[in-house]
Amino acid sequence: MVFLLLFMIFLPFIFAILTPFLYKLFAPRVHTGWFVAIVPLSVFVLLLQYIPVISNGQTIYQSVPWIPSLGVNITAYLDGLSLIFGLLISGVGFLVVLYSIYYMSKEREALHNFYVYMLLFMGAMFGLVFSDNILVLYVFWELTSISSFLLIAYWYQRKNSRYGAQKSMLITIFGGLAMLSGLIMLSMMSDSYNIREILSEVHVVTESPLFLPAMILLLLGAFTKSAQFPFSIWLPDAMEAPTPISAYLHSATMVKAGIYLVARFTAVFGGSSEWFWIVSGVGLITLVYGSINAVNQKDLKALLAYSTISQLGLIMSLLGLGSASLYFGNGDESTVYAMAIIASMFHLINHSTFKGSLFMVIGIIDHETGTRDIRKLGGLMSLMPISFTLTIIGSFAMAGLPPFNGFLSKEMFFTSILTAVEQPVFGMKMFGLFVPIIAWIASVFTFIYCMILVFKTFTGKHQPEKIDKVAKEAPIGMLIPPAILAILVIGIFFFPNVVGKNFLQPALMAILPIHSEGVGLTIKAWHGWNTELFMTIGVVLFGSIMYIFLKRWTVLYHFFPKTLTLNHLYNQSLEGTEMMSYKVTNKYMTGKMRDYLVYIFGFMIVILGGALWLSDGITFLGSNQAGVSIYEGVLLGAMVISGFAVLLSKSRLTAIIALGALGYLVSLFFVIFRAPDLALTQLVVETVTSALFLLCFYHLPKLRKEVSRIQFKLTNAVISIGVGTVVTLLALAVNNHRLFASISNFFEQSYTLAGAKNIVNAILVDFRGFDTMLEILVLCIAGLGVYTLIKLQLAGRDRKE
Amino acid sequence: MFDQFLLICLFFLALSILAALYRVIKGPSTPDRVMALDNIGVNLIAGVACLSILLRTHAFLDIILLIGILSFVGTIAFARFIERGVVIERKRVH
C-alpha cells in the first residue's frame, strides 16, 4: 500500500498519455471511454478501502520529494475532507465517463482529445484535494483551470464555446494568481509550505500583519473558482461544454475546489470576524443572486448553471457560519456552530449527487429532442418516463423536499442559520435577523426554478413541430449513471447517518481540528415541529403560489436594466481595457523616432539630473582642474562656431562641411593634447565619413532636397539644452570626485613588459588585445552589412517577378 | 625668440586659412572651392609642422604626411567628379 495513493493521483496523467494510442488502435470499433473508465473506478475502489481508517480518525500521509532544496514535495494527504472530495471526483468521474460513452458519438467526435483533457482534469483534481504542499496544490489548481478551459472549448468551431472558455480562463486564472500570492504570504508567515505545519503555526499566522491580505487573496482564488458573486459569470458561459463535462466539472467537482480551499484553510483563518463575514456574506449573496437569476433562464443548462451558483453560495455561507466555531474554542456554542460545517459538507455531497444526475438528464433531453430551450419543450412525461422520474428526484432534492437528501441538508442549513441568530457572534445582532430572511427568500426561488425544471419540461403540451428530432427515451446506458446518482439521492435520505459517521465526522475533524473527537451528531429526517420545518413548509407554500403566477411577475425581470448585469459589466470592462490600452499605446507609440528620442532623453535628464541633484553631486572647480592655454581657448571657440554652423545652416551641404570641420578640429585637439595616434585616425575617419555624407547628400531624391533651416521646436531646444547641461554637470562632477589613483602607471612599463615604445599601440594589441579583436569584428560586420544591403535587394527582386 | 617666430607663422597661416575659407564659402564655381580646400590642406600641414616644433615632438610628423595624402586624394576625387560626374567609374562591359 506504500505510495499507492500517490500513484493513484498520477494514474490519470499516465492514462492521458496512453489514451491517444488506444484511440488510434481501437477507434471506431471500441469507444475509447471504456478504457478511460478504468481510471476513476480503480481510484474509487482504492479510496473506499480507506473509509474505515479515516472514520477512525486516522490520516494517511505519503510524500515524494520534488524540489527538496526548496521544501517542495509531492504529497498525498488523506483525511476526512479530502476523502469526501476524492470519492466525489472518482465516483462522479466514473459515472460521467460511463455517461459520455453513450453521449459522445464515437464516429463523429474527437474522443482522444476529449478523454485526454478529461483525464488531465481528473488527475489535477485528485492532486488538488490530496496535496498537503501549498505550492503543489497551486500547480494542480492551475491545471484544473487549464483543462477546464480545454474542455469548455471542446467544440472549438463554435464562437460561444471559445468565448466561454476565454471568460472562464480569465476569471479563474485571475483568482488562481491571487491565490498564489496569498499562499506565498501564508508560507512567509508560517515558514512552511505544508498545510499541516501551517496549522501548527496558527497563532503566528493570526498575529501577523499579512494575515488579512493573505486571507483576502486566498478567498479571491476560492471565490473565482467556485463561481461566487461577483465572479460567478463564467459558469453559465461554461455551459457551452459538452454535457458530461458540465455535469462533472461545473457541478460536481471543479466548482467545489474553491469550497475545498475554504474548508481546508478554515482552521487557519476561521475564528476571525473578517473570514466569518466575507465567506458567509458572499455565500449568502451568491445564494440569492443565483436562485433569482435561475428562474429567468430559458436554457435548461443555464438554469442549472445558476442553480449551481446558488447552491455553491449556500455551501460557502455554511462554511462561513461554521468558522465561528473556532472563535468559541471548545464548548456548546462551538459545537452548535460546528453543525454548520457538517451541514455544508453534507450539502456538498448531496449537491454533487443530484446536480450531476440533473445535468445528465438535461443532456439526455438535449440528445433526444435536439433542444434545451424551455419554450420549445413540454409534454415529455409520457415519452421519456425514466428521464422524468430522474428529473423529479433531482429537482425535488434540489428544492429541499422529502424524501430526498436535499431536504436533510436544507433543514440543517436553516438550523445553522437560526443558530447564528440565537447565538450571535461578530456583531451578528445587527444583521442577524436578515440572514434567515435572505436564506428563506433564496429557498423560495430555488423551489420555483426546480418546479420550472420539472413541469415546464415534462408536463403541458408536446410540441413536436418545434423540436428537430422525434422525442424518445434514451438508451439504457445513458440512463444508468443518472439513475445511480438518483438512487444515492434517495439512499442518503433514508440512511443519512452512514454518511454522517463515515464522512461528515472525519471531515469535521479535518476542517475544525478543535473537534478532534467529533460532535455526536445524528441526522434525523424527522426532527419534530420546529422552526426549520415551518420554514420549509412556508417555502413550499409560497413557492407553489409564486410558480402558479409565474407569468404575472416574471415580467419584472425585464425591468432590470441590461447595463447593470454582471455580464455586461464584464464585457464592457474587457472592451474598455482593450480600448484604453489601445489608445494609451497609440498615444505614446507614435512610430516617430523623434518622439522616442524625446522620451529617452527626457528620462536621461530626469534620472541623471535628479540623481545628481539629490545626491549633491553638483560641484565645480575642485583642485583637479588644469590651466587653460590659448590654443585650447581658440580651438574651443572654433568648435563652438562650427557646432552652431551645423545647427543653423541653411543647406545640408553646409551642415556636412561644418561637421567635417568639427571633426578636423577635434583631431587638432588630439594634437594639442598629445595623442598623435588618435589624431591620425580621427583625420582619416573624418575624411571618409564626410565623403560618405556627401554621397548620401548627392543621392537624395530631387523632390525632398529641402533647402531650409531646421525648424525650431521648443521641446527639442529644452531637451537638448537639458541633456547638454546634465552631461556637462556630470562630467565636471566626475572630475571632482576622483576616488582612486589611475592605473596608467602600469602601462608606462610597456617597453619592459611588452617591448613597445608606443604605449597606445601596446595597450591596443598587447595589454587589451581582446577589445581590438572585437572591434575588428565590428568593422567586418559593418562591411558585410553594407555589402549585403547593396547587393541583396530581395524586395526589389520579388517585385520584378 | 624662436617660439615667438613660430607663433607669428601660425598666426599668418591661420589668416590664410581664413582667406581660403572665404573662397570656400563664397567661391562662385566648384573648382574655386576645391582649390581653396586644397590650399587649406597645405596650410594645415604647415600649421601642424609649426605646432610640433612648438611642442618639441616628432610624433605628429605622420599627421603631416597624412594630411598631404588626404588633401591630394580629395582634390583628385573632386576633379574627377567635376570632370566626369562620378568618382569611381564602372568597368565597361564589352
UniProtKB/TrEMBL annotation, chain A:
Classification via PANTHER family: NA(+)/H(+) ANTIPORTER SUBUNIT, NA(+)_H(+) ANTIPORTER SUBUNIT A
Recorded superkingdom: Bacteria
Coiled coil: none
Gene Ontology cellular component list: plasma membrane
Database matches in InterPro entries: CPA3_Na-H_Antiporter_A (IPR050616), MrpA/MnhA1/PhaAB (IPR005663), MrpA_C/MbhD (IPR025383), MrpA_C/MbhE (IPR046806), ND/Mrp_TM (IPR001750), Proton_antipo_N (IPR001516)
Protein name from the UniProt record: Na+/H+ antiporter subunit A
Bilayer-crossing regions: 6-26, 33-54, 74-102, 114-130, 136-156, 168-190, 210-235, 247-269, 275-292, 304-329, 335-365, 377-401, 433-455, 476-495, 533-550, 596-614, 626-648, 655-673, 679-700, 712-734, 772-790
Domain (NADH:quinone oxidoreductase/Mrp antiporter transmembrane) ranges: 131-420
UniProt domain MrpA C-terminal/MbhE: residue ranges: 714-791
Keywords: Antiport, Cell membrane, Hydrogen ion transport, Ion transport, Membrane, Sodium, Sodium transport, Transmembrane, Transmembrane helix, Transport
Localization: Cell membrane; Membrane
GO biological process: proton transmembrane transport; sodium ion transport
Domain NADH-Ubiquinone oxidoreductase (complex I) chain 5 N-terminal, residue spans: 67-114
Taxonomic lineage from the root: Bacteria, Bacillati, Bacillota, Bacilli, Bacillales
UniProt source species: Cytobacillus depressus
Positions of the MrpA C-terminal/MbhD domain: 639-702
From TrEMBL, chain B:
Domain of life: Bacteria
Bilayer disposition of the protein: Multi-pass membrane protein
GO CC, alphabetical: plasma membrane
Species for this entry: Cytobacillus depressus
Transmembrane feature ranges: 6-25, 37-57, 63-82
Keyword Secreted on entry: no
Molecular function (Gene Ontology), one example: sodium:proton antiporter activity
Family named by the database record: Belongs to the CPA3 antiporters (TC 2.A.63) subunit F family.
UniProt KW keywords: Antiport, Cell membrane, Ion transport, Membrane, Transmembrane, Transmembrane helix, Transport
Compartment list: Cell membrane
Name of the protein in question: Na(+)/H(+) antiporter subunit F1
Keyword Cell membrane included in the entry's annotation: yes
InterPro entries documented for this protein: MrpF/PhaF-like (IPR007208)
